[in-house]
Each structure stands twice: as C-alpha cells, then as structure tokens.
Amino acid sequence: MGCRLCEIHCITAHSKSKNIIKVFRYEVPQPVPSVIVEEKEYTTFAIQCRHCEDAPCIQACITGAMHRDPDTNAVHVDHEKCVGCWMCIMVCPFGAIQRGTVEKKVASKCDLCVDREIPACVENCPNEALVLVEVSE
Hints:
5 helices; 15% strand; Alpha-Beta Plaits; two-stranded antiparallel sheet; globular; alpha+beta
C-alpha cells in the first residue's frame, strides 16, 4: 500500500537512539534506509538487498568491503574498508545498494538487522508485504 513504514522502521533500527521520535527530530545525520519503496501510479514495491548467492557486489568490490557472513550467508558491508568507489552500486541487479550518508561516503545496504531476530522492515509491515525467506542449500 506504499505506507513506507518499512523505511521508517529501518531508519529507526539503525539509529543511535532506536527511538522513532528522536531519530527524526534530533539525529544528524539520519541513517539511510536500507529498503526503498518505489511507486509507479497504483503499484508500490520495496527494493532491498536479496543477498544474492552469486553476489555481483562482492565480486566487484575492490577493497573486500562487501563480504558474505559465513554464519548467516548474508552479504554485508565493512564500512571501515569501503572507499566509496560505488562499483557495488553499478553492478547490483536490483538497485538495492545506495550511497551512505554525506558524512561517511560508504555503500549502504540491507544487513538483515543483524542485531534483531526479525528485520525491522518485516516485523513492522502492516500489510505483511515484506517477508523473510530463508533459502536452504
């Protein structure tokens, strides 16, 4: 329905305060949402990282900042290694990686809310349009 609550809860989950009011009123810079809602007339859809098995972003990363977590199999960005070359953005087939904050020019993407059992976007989607699907090998 295009409510964008996934974006709001993503920003809140990745904020310093973890408080929905404080993050939008006082935190500078605000985190970039890792899920983006696109709209075209009456159609809305969420764009987020698919943590691809073949992960072109990992292959294109010149510093090794893009890497796969061996325990969860999720693709993550090491912000200390990222130099902001944006190769990952260029090769992502889903357009799910974006430029981070102005303060720190690093790639930003979904991390599946590593500190939570269920990603904030999935947990707070009122229409249950977002689901977490685990692929077994």
